[in-house]
Each structure stands twice: as structure tokens, then as C-alpha cells.
Amino acid sequence: MSISETKKLPELGEIVIVTVKEVTGHGAYVTLDEYDNLTAFLHISEIATGWIRNIERYVKAKQKTVLKVIRVNPIRSEVDLSLKQVTGEEKKSKVMEVKKDEKGANFMDVIKTNLGYDQNGIREIEEKISQKYDFIYDAFEAVAIKGTEVLSSLDLRPEVIEAIELESKKIQIPHIEVRAVLDITVRKGDGIDIIKNILGSVDGSKNNSKIDITYIGAPKYRITVTSENFKIAEKALNQAIEKIKTNIEKNSGTFKFSREESKKTHTNI
């Protein structure tokens, strides 16, 4: 979504962010944040099921909330809304969408200032990004995770790509960390060196995952895999464990492992 885009009227069934303007005995007047603060109405019958004693228990003046469009009159520019028809998932998704728009707008404001672009120049960048991404913020997040090569098809100037990369470093990317404890022995004169070489062959960054191996105390080692989601991390851990096991057993060693609890972390890429 282009952050410079302003639409005239919402569509029937659309989920919108509003600011409550005035609460009355029959409902609430609100302004549509994404539609140039167009005034719309939330009737008391669409606030909650059952009898409502106090409307302000559900909506208050100056409050921002998520509502659903249930009627649009394009001739008179009238919009009616519902609170009770909004599901928890719809609310969560809309709030996330708005946050993305705000963060994307903030990033573009910084780029506009740093590069000395006018609004037309910024709009041109947004249009190119929108060819590939639904939200401007998504481009920055993609760069934070995978690098500037994700922008190679967008025909952006080098200084713009550099500015996007700089701003993307501010993004905290959630990562999943999965771990296991390895119990390894190789009863040979150079057994320690064999173990070090085998563990070193899987230690490092591979396939969007980072693998760290630390020494706990003979004969135990901890392997930690960090990745952007559990599926990728789990796959990398299983592949690493299988490779270590195979090579240890080739050297007449013994191998056992036990899993540890996974956890979610945040990383500035």
C-alpha cells in the first residue's frame, strides 16, 4: 500500500481505523483515519449484542478503535459502521496494517530528509516499491532479513537503496531459537581434534539460519540454531545433528543428544 494514497470512500465490509469524535445516546460519530477524517456513524445497535446501559463502556471520545463498514451511500458520502461485527482476528490484522503504514511513513520521511527529495520523488519510490510489496514497510523488513538484493528488480537509485538499507537496520526481527545438548565421545588419540573439526563443519550461518556450538564440559556441547521461524530453525537443527552424528560414528565415536526448550528472541539485523 502506498503511504501517499488517499481514498475517497471505504468499501462495504472493509475494516477501518477510526477516531471517536462524539458519543450520543444513539451511538457515536467517528472520523475515518484513512479517509481524510470523513465523519461516519456507529449506531448503538451495532456496538454490542444485547442491551447497552452505557455506550462509553465500549467507545469513548478521542479513542481509536477498529470498526467494520456495513453501509456506504456514495451520493451523500455517508458511512455506517459496526463494532460488534468485527472479529478478534480482523482487529488484530488491521492494527498490524496501520502500524506498518506508520512505520513505513516514518522511514520514508527520514529518507526524504537525508536525500533532500521532494514529495514527488518520495512518491515515485513508493510506487516502485508497491510493484512488489503490499506495504512500504515490508520492503524495509525484507532488506533487514535478506539484504538489499530483494530490491534489485525495482529500478531504485543506488543512493535510495543505501538509504533503505540504513533505515532497515533499525528493525528488530523476531527470531526463533532452538537448542540441543550433544553428548559426544571419540576414543582416539586425536579424538578432541576430530570432534572440533566435525562441529566446526556445521558451525556458522547457513540457509537463513545461524548455528552456534559451545562447549559445556566433556563430553557435552550445546548447539543453538537461530532463524526467522520455527520451521526453518528446526530443519537446520535436524540437518546439523544428523551430519554430526554420521561423522562421529564414522570415526567410531558415540553420539547422543537431548532437546532443550525453544524460545523467541529479537535481533537487530
Describe this structure in words.
The structure is a single chain. The protein has 269 residues and is α+β, with helices and mostly antiparallel strands. The strands form 2 sheets. The chain has a 5-stranded mixed beta barrel with strand order 1-2-3-5-4. The protein has a 5-stranded antiparallel sheet with strand order 7-8-9-6-10. A hairpin with a 2-residue loop joins strand 1 and strand 2 (27-32). It starts with 14 loop residues before the first strand and ends with a strand. It has 3 domains: 15-85, OB fold (Dihydrolipoamide Acetyltransferase, E2P); 89-170, Orthogonal Bundle (DNA polymerase, domain 1); 173-268, Alpha-Beta Plaits. Helices cover 35% and strands 32% of the residues. It has 6 helices and 10 strands; from the N terminus they run E-E-E-E-E-H-H-H-H-E-H-E-E-E-H-E. This is Translation initiation factor 2 subunit alpha. Belongs to the eIF-2-alpha family. It holds the Pfam family S1. Heterotrimer composed of an alpha, a beta and a gamma chain.
